[in-house]
Structures are given as C-alpha cells and as structure tokens.
Description:
Blueprint: H1 6-27, H2 43-52, H3 72-75, H4 94-104, H5 122-131, H6 139-153, H7 158-167, H8 203-206, H9 215-221, E1 225-228, E2 231-236, E3 239-242, E4 259-260, H10 268-281, H11 295-307, H12 318-323
Antiparallel strand pairs: 1-2, 2-3, 3-4
Amino acid sequence: MAQQPVEQQSPSKGKRAPEKARTTEAQQPKGKPAKPETPAAKQPGAMKERGATTERGAATEPGAGKGRKTPASQESATAPGANVSGQPVGAPTPGAKQQAQERRKGMKTPPPSAKAPPKATPATAGAKATAAPPAPASPAGQQNAQANVGAKAKKPDQQKVQQIKSQHANFRAQPKPQQVPAVTFNQSRRIEGSERWEGPQYEVFRSYRPERHDQGWYRSHYNRVELIGGGYYFWNNGYWYPAWGYDPSAEYYAYDGPIYVGHRAEPPDKVIADVQAVLQEMGYYRGEVDGLLGPLTREALTAYQADQGLTTTAAIDQPTLDSLGMG
C-alpha cells in the first residue's frame, strides 16, 4: 500500500522540464538565442554591453566581472567610457563609436609595456637641426689655421729680393771654421737621399762624386776656377763644385756638393748670402748672413722646400732658386 507505481512519477517529471524550457524560449527575442546560464532579467543589460563594444579589446566581454579572464590584447586598452577595471560606465557616445571604427581600420594601441618613440615637435626638431652640424671653431683657432696655411703658401716679396741682391752685389764670404766647421774630402761620399730625387734638375746631385785633381787638370777641363770663401771652386753649366786638390792649403768647404746659381755664373757665396737674407725675411733662417752653406742654412732650406712642396734637398738647387725668384 505504501509504494507508488513507478509509472506515475515519470510522467510528472517529464512534463515539468519541457514547460521550463518553453518558458525560457518565449522570453527571448527571435533570432537571438539566449545563453542558458544568463537569467532572463539580466539579458537587456548584456545586450547593451555587446552592442557598445564592437572593437576587439575596446572593452571587456559580458561576464568578465564575474571572473572570466580577459585576453592580453583586450587588456591593453579600453573603450571610451570605461573605468579602470574595464567595465563600461554608460551607453557609448557617437564619438566613441567613431573612434572604434577608426581603430578597426588599422589603428592599433601599443601594449602598456611598449614605449612609443617620442614624437618630434617643432622645438625638438629645431634642437636636433641645431645640434647636427659640428660646433664652429673659435676665432682664435680659425686665425691659427689660416696663419698655418698662409705660412705654407707664403711667397717671397720680389721687390725685397731685388733689394737684397743689390745690397750683396759685392759680397765676399770669409771662412769661419769655429762657427761653421769645414767638411773633409771623402772620395766615396754620395749625397744622402739623392737617389730618390726624381727629375733631370736633380741629376747633378745623383751623379756627384768628389774628385781630387791638381791645378793643371782643372785648368784644362774648366775655364773658370776661383777662390771663394776659403776654398777653390770650378764652374760648370750653372753649378759651382769644390775643386778638391787645386790648392791643398785652401780647402775650406762648408758643403761638399753642387751649388746652383743660374746661368749668369754669379759667385756661390753671393748667391748663398742672397738666399740666407730672403729666408731670414720669411722667418726660416735665424743665423748670420755669411755666404756659407752650413747646417743652419741647410735646415732653413729644408723647411722652405717642404712648405713649398719641393723636393727636400737641403741644398740650393734649380727648383728652389726659381721658387725664391732668383733663378
């Protein structure tokens, strides 16, 4: 008597389930299926949220506040009108929809961790343009640079050269072994570095070989042999050479090698004195104008030749004399 038939319980349970399902379907709008877990009373608000957030990542999805984890791309930015937690505050404005559409066309918001490059403003652009060129040299530095260039390009004053030559018209050098030591005869001597001097104007220096002969030999080979500054020299085709052996008692030579004086055959001591005086005026020579081709004069010649781009022979050669305006 106490047991109920099983067939009577089954129909009652099966009838209640379809009724509940039909009731839910009747409350939902057509064409939009309801989510089974969402109560019917909260659906209008959920529809508003989905309609306001058409851009991916612009706002959190429905139910995000209930513990659903929002993707990283959605956490990077929120739509206008969203608070710090990502929940929408109110209905979207036309401006928010327009911004969402513009972002959908290609505008991407960088993640919070990425640092956007600084945009160039007129002020910063002007600062970069100003800092791009190197700082100009100071007036003192420019003057020094110009002075160095001017010193190298400096040419002798031809009026001064002619004045010096006229003053030395009767110049005669005197031997000064204490101030300018004499060189000694060395048959195997070669002019140092002359093998590197290129050009026919330096051939006499490359081929020079000291020789010792008596007076007869010199007289028979050269028509001009003179005592100049304590030693005898012979003249040959624009150059004066030491006449070693002509007179053993008069062999004071400050330099053993050819001395170019041009085709006028002026005495070598006079030409040396002219060169010394001009180089002295130009600031190269600080010694005495003595007509002797000693170490100080040769140093001055080397400096002048280097500044003028000439071969540094430390001797009076044709290119140097022409450069000085005395050729």
